[in-house]
Amino acid sequence: MNDLTPTREERAARLEGMGCKRKRVEDIRFTQGKGTYVDDVKLPGMLHGDFVRSPHAHARVKSINTEKALQVPGVLAVITAETLKTVNLAWMPTLAGDVQMVLADGKVLFQNQEVAFVVATDRYAADDGINAVEVEYEPLPPLIDPFRAMAPDAPVLREDIKDKTEGAHGPRKHHNHIFEWTVGDRDLTDAAFKKADVTIKELISYQRVHPSPLETCQCVCSFDKVKGELTIYGTFQAPHVIRTVVALIAKLPEQKIHVIAPDIGGGFGNKVGAYPGYICSAVASIVTGKPVKWVEDRMENLTTTSFARDYHMTTEIAATRDGKVTGLRVHVLADHGAFDACADPSKWPAGFFNIVTGSYDFPTAHLSVDGVYTNKAPGGVAYRCSFRVTEAAYCIERAMDILAQKLGMDPAELRLKNFIRPEQFPYHSALGWEYDSGDYHTAMKKAMETVDYAGLRREQAEKREAFRRGETREIMGIGVSFFTEIVGAGPSKNCDILGIAMFDSCEIRLHPTGAGVARMGTKSQGQGHETTWAQIIATEIGIPADNIMVEEGNTDTAPYGLGTYGSRSTPVAGAAIALCARKIKAKAQMIAAYKLEVHEDDLEWDIDGFRVKGLPEKFLGMKDICWLAYNSPPPGMEPGLEAVSYYDPPNMTYPFGAYICVMDIDVDTGAYKVRRFYALDDCGTRINPMIIEGQVHGGLTEAFAIAMGQEIHYDSEGNVLGGSFMDFFLPTAVETPHWETDFTVTPSPHHPIGAKGVGESPNVGGVPAFSNAVNDAFSFLGATHIQMPHDHWRNWQAAKALGVIEEAAAA
After folding, report:
1. 586: part of which helix (H) or strand (E)?
2. Most buried pick, 160, 296, 431, 580, via CB within 10 A?
3. Which of these is catalytic: 24, 158, 329, 384?
């Protein structure tokens, strides 16, 4: 070895593999405006489609007159439910086992529901055509309050299923009832509550919010009548699922459907399901023989595409006097809107809400969930969370704070007392999950020490005394949140969508020169897959990450996969990538053994190639092995170096974290200031620390938005009051706090690289941290639970209700 021979450290650094803060390769095109989004797709002769939408939340459609619209210059067609019935496409299946109108069929069930689809030569003509369509409505009584959905006199919403006593998930007990789902031991839980020294019970509501990605939902559909093939460009988080859904709905052979998801400007769960715009654009293209583009505007996105949350959770905890929890009982009233269009795995009508036991060792628990219809937009997607996990985390974390308040205990100490201990893993929860690994006490104590938790509590006590003396009108809150998330959907024994197991996939093909291409069944919407996937491959097979091109989103070239949402990419696709790379490495080892004239077992892996054990000078690098694979493979071996892997995980993964928020609130104005926010995450093996930090920053910003202002609110007539960014809180850099991030590392024992996923975690843990800070601030004034969102107005109202605002100031 001479002085110019690179060291092992230098060779590893050149790979830019796992653990490296590699810069995002996607950003080269994004920062130069060279990304390709759906609205950038322009095909010859392309037409444009847009919707006539209902002004009513609940009404019968008496008639639709399209004559004037068809006389508008540029308008070529107007599609209604009657049109779609001729091709059996008036209704479409949802991912939750329900059916949904594509266009209003006899009645409308939520404001801005799609009534007719106008096809024109450009968007301006389509808009003119919309205004010319005449629709006669007969208004019906709207049902907005989910607590009235199953009242005896509640109006019938879904007339198509009003007499059905069985739904996709079991018996229905009312015409507006969707399902009842229960899990846990009711009798043992009831017994625990009868014996308990202390119990708490609180209605904890998680308001309806919306993912509101930067890019709205949109598509371009192009039907080739000669080939009988349909090509769809769209904002799809799961392109292969969309292809299968279209094949089932349109009765087209799946091999003749080509789905392409180009660059996507954010998804957050909003772009998982199928929307009427996709179906109508496809039908319009088939009818006209020309490509048809549909692009929704912001108001349409906020008011009609999939919402999130709207869970109303009656939560009870039983405990001993010294703070040991002995039982948990939760009932959820889930508002699903007009159709059950949740994007949950088929077997889980309430998603993974049964993670509601959180990070705590509950001996017994019982959960029941009732889903109901209301006159609101359908949805219930995993907005930066894993299938109702955010709701579950908010539920248990608020409940633990409420219990601590009743016991007179510090909320952090209560958590430490009840955490699952490291030696209990793998841990079987009272509601059926097997937690893979965790070290909760270490994470919590590190967080407390870093922020000087004891010092903060002393400062808070001093400020409370100053408030009582009238020396300040500002109160201080310390929000503690400790979450365990369940991600990596998922194992086929637990998870499927429309009967398709939720595996994921990878195909790697190395070229003779030592470069390669990798294709996955996932689809990035900003997560940085092109960067991190190449890093996994670089570490596994010793090819520099810069020499691996990552491709996603084209169903013609990518292996079948279930897409990207619910923080499943790294736990599922990341594992498929590692195993695929190991298949290639195994073949490369045989080639190296043949070339070095030794047995395979005499070789050991050394960063970027194979070395003969005991003879370090006998080494063959992966770049040379790639050439040999195409030039002179061993006798009887197929040339080439490529592999495909489909990964069905044996279990979910369970990332966790400890968050602490320090907030000051002016009781006279309700104005708040987030003084400090500390977020410690444990996502197992860390692939790219810089991308993890970016994911945490983004998730915390969304958590801040949800906790401190976001809400899709309806008035009593079903009018949407949060249908634009004038009314729906979207924080800018001005409002967003500074984020302080940290980590511990507890690898998943069953994942090939030990990774757990992190993209959703900051939203899961961030929301309860903010809410707990607000509630903690008001707790010494007598508050037990203040519902989200905690904007200035609601904070002021809370202060007024607690009697700390003088009458003159309130007036």
Report:
1. helix 575-596
2. 580
3. 384
Q: Indicate which residue of 20, 221, 280, 385 is catalytic.
A: 385
- The tokens describing 489, both together, are 């959907």
CB of 687 closer than 8 Å to CB of 659? no
Q: Are 260 and 554 in contact (CB under 8 A)?
A: yes
Please give the share of the chain, as a percent, with pLDDT higher than 90.
94
- 101 is written with which tokens? 């109108």
Write the pLDDT tens digit of every residue in 607-653.
999 999 999 999 999 999 999 999 999 999 999 999 999 999 999 99
Four-point Cα dihedral 156, 161, 163, 164, nearest 10:
-130
For residues 792 and 670, is the Cβ–Cβ distance under 8 A?
A: yes
**Residue 808's pLDDT band (cuts 50, 70, 90):** very low
Q: What is the mean pLDDT of the chain?
A: 96
**Which CA distances in Å does 602 have to 514, 598, 623, 627?**
24, 6, 20, 22
Positive or negative torsion for Cα 544, 545, 549, 552: positive
CA distances from 146 to 42, 155, 315, 713 (A): 43, 12, 17, 13
What tokens appear for 97 in the block? 């086992």
Q: How far is CA 161 from CA 100, 175, 177, 373, 693, in A?
A: 11, 8, 10, 12, 47
Q: Which of 22, 53, 760, 794 is catalytic?
A: 760
Q: 583: helix, coil or strand? A: helix
CA–CA dist 671, 251 (Å, integer):
56
Which three-class secondary structure state does DSSP give residue 303? helix
Contact indicator for 579, 752 with CB cutoff of 8 Å: yes
Residue 615 contacts residue 396 (beta carbons within 8 Å): no
Alpha helices in 335-452 (DSSP H): 389-407, 411-418, 440-451
Task: From the candidates 237, 405, 695, 710, give the one annotated as an active-site residue.
Answer: 237
- Using the predicted structure, report yes or no on whether residue 803 has a pLDDT greater than 80: yes
Over residues 10-68, the pLDDT tens digits come to 999 999 999 999 999 999 999 999 999 999 999 999 999 999 999 999 999 999 999 99
Residue 498: its pLDDT value, please? 81
How many angstroms from the chain centroid is the CA of residue 72? 42
Report the alpha-carbon distance of residue 432 to residue 248 in Å, rounded: 33
385 is catalytic: yes
- pTM surpassing 0.70? yes
Q: What is the mean pLDDT of residues 305-322?
A: 97
Q: Do the Cβ atoms of 603 and 596 come closer than 8 Å? A: yes
**pLDDT given for residue 2 in this prediction:** 58
User: Angle at Cα 621 formed by Cα 618 and Cα 624, nearest 5°?
Assistant: 110
- pLDDT bracket for residue 807 (50, 70, 90): low
Amino acid in the structure at residue 347 = K
Tell me how far apart the alpha carbons of residues 149 and 109 are, in angstroms, rounded to a whole number: 14
Contact 608, 614 (CB under 8 A): no
Q: Is 70 exceeded by the pLDDT of residue 809? A: no
Q: Is 760 a catalytic residue?
A: yes
Q: Respond yes or no: is residue 237 known to be catalytic.
A: yes
What does the DSSP assignment read for 393-411?
A: HHHHHHHHHHHHHHHT--H
Half-sphere exposure of 630 (CA within 13 A, CB side): 14
- What pLDDT digit, counting tens, does each position of 477-502 carry? 999 999 999 999 889 988 988 889 99
How many C-beta neighbours within 10 Å does residue 322 have? 10
**Confidence (pLDDT) at 3:** 63
Q: Is 9 a catalytic residue?
A: no
Q: Going by DSSP bridges, is the β-strand pair 516-520/548-551 parallel, antiparallel, or unpaired?
A: parallel
Greatest extent of the chain over all pairs of C-alpha atoms, in Å: 93
Is residue 149's pLDDT more than 60?
Answer: yes
* Residue 19, phi-psi category: left (phi > 0), alpha (psi -120 to 50), beta (remainder): left
Beta strands in 292-446 (DSSP E): 292-295, 308-319, 325-335, 365-372, 427-428, 434-435
Q: How far apart (Å, rounded) are the C-alpha atoms in residues 550 and 508?
A: 9
CA 167 to chain centre: 26
